[in-house]
Amino acid sequence: xxxxxxxxxxxxxxxxxxxxxxxxxxxxxxxxxxxxxxxxxxxxxxxxxxxxxxxxxxxxxxxxxxxxxxxxxxxxxxxxxxxxxxxxxxxxxxxxxxxxxxxxxxxxxxxxxxxxxxxxxxxxxxxxxxxxxxxxxxxxxxxxxxxxxxxxxxxxxxxxxxxxxxxxxxxxxxxxxxxxxxxxxxxxxxxxxxxxxxxxxxxxxxxxxxxxxxxxxxxxxxxxxxxxxxxxxxxxxxxxxxxxxxxxxxxxxxxxxxxxxxxxxxxxxxxxxx
Length: 274
Hints:
The chain is mainly α. Helices cover 81% and strands 0% of the residues. The protein has one domain. It has twelve helices and no strands. The longest helix has 29 residues, at 101-129. The protein is globular and about 55 Å long.
């Protein structure tokens, strides 16, 4: 929390409030509509991945329930400091439904972990192929990521009994999720005024997405700091990086609002049941 606040304070001190306001003002209806469509796609893929992993752990989870719970989780992650409160809530709620909270939490942990492994592998592959501010360091980073990924996969195959087709489903859904988030960031960049070609913007988007994995103040802080750094290093300007990150934050928050409706409905049902 303190690091996130410090990053935002430093950015305001260095670039002023203009890029933050520009990031909010430039978001239009088309950008929000695109963000909501992409969020629907990625959320369905996330829910499907969660269903696959939960099935491997021996707990039932229907796809409609998983989609609703995932939307609620995303909304909580984007509104409550920490960035993982929604995932913890999702794991506990599912665990209570199946009378095994520990297994429900493990399903969420394995599901999110698998997604981050795929994201890291795809990011390294893109950064090896395309020019970026970190390209000179990528061969060594790639070696470390490959070793770590192999170790994680070996451990997962022993601890998470999934069939080969299930592992393929986890990998494919994770790849679609990464592409959906990257597309949302690229739309935010265009909305904020970026005109650089796709080959320049994609590595920057993937680098900023890695920073989004870090705990933050309801999604703010590391994202803006990383965007400011990579855009500045790429010669696109720190201010444009901040404006893009802010536009992305606004877009994903609006796209997560169906989760607020799910939260209200589920809370009302619990109250009536009590």
